[in-house]
Amino acid sequence: MSAISLSLSGVTCRHGSFTAVDRVDLDLAPGDHLALTGTNGSGKSTLLRAVLGLHRAFTGRIAVSGVEAKGGSGWARRRTEVAWIPQRQAAGRFPLLVRELLASSRNAEAAVRAAVDLSVGGLLDRPVASLSGGQLQRAYLARALGQLAAGAGLLLADEPTAALDFDGQAQVARVLAELPMTVVVITHDRVVADVCGRVAEMAAGRLREVR
Ligand SMILES: Nc1ncnc2c1ncn2[C@@H]1O[C@H](COP(=O)(O)OP(=O)(O)OP(=O)(O)O)[C@@H](O)[C@H]1O
Predict the structure, then answer these.
(1) Residue 1 forms part of a structural domain
(2) Which CATH number does the domain housing residue 71 bear?
(3) How many angstroms separate the Cα of 155 from the Cα of each of 23, 35, 78, 123?
(4) Between these two residues, 59 and 166, which has the higher pLDDT value?
(5) For residue 95, how far is its CA from the centre of ligand 1 (angstroms)?
(6) What range defines the domain where residue 28 resides?
């Protein structure tokens, strides 16, 4: 596993006729850590979802490791290169055990090890739908660490500490700080922003780097 680059140029994302992300440019070198802050509804989640191919209504250029995703196989490859912690962690439409969520990382062993470190190792046989918000967030972080162990070189995390207690927030900030991967983390948490070398702020779809 090694860190990879992310390059956005002139990225505009629409929800119907509404422009949620407006001509965003951003270049991250392998290993850069960026905190993405800004007001609610300013387009942060939409932007990261576009990088993953979960929001396809965009124009402009999104390149990971210098490559733009094209077609189904291109986006499938993108999802092996990019680890993802979603904001509203979905319990899924079908009953899913924590163990199965972790296995979806493609490195179940590493994800389970991370789950143990993150204090959710005792919940492997519980349905994901039965976890508390903080437990679910820890489980999704463990899955992302499994994805990184499986070869992903970029982590996109959407408010990964929003549901965590103080100890959990500090622990996740530590884990993120130590990751040798490229990281973009949407956060309203100062502890997390402080461990990132770069900080950008979004407002009404525009991105401005502040540090
Ligand atoms: N599926 C959708 N359909 C229509 N509008 C949407 C949809 N998803 C998001 N939006 C709108 O796009 C804008 C950007 O939303 P987005 O979730 O990207 O913001 P955000 O910066 O991540 O917000 P927050 O900090 O509250 O999570 C908001 O005005 C939101 O209401």
Answers:
(1) no
(2) 3.40.50.300
(3) 22, 12, 12, 24
(4) 59
(5) 28
(6) 6-209
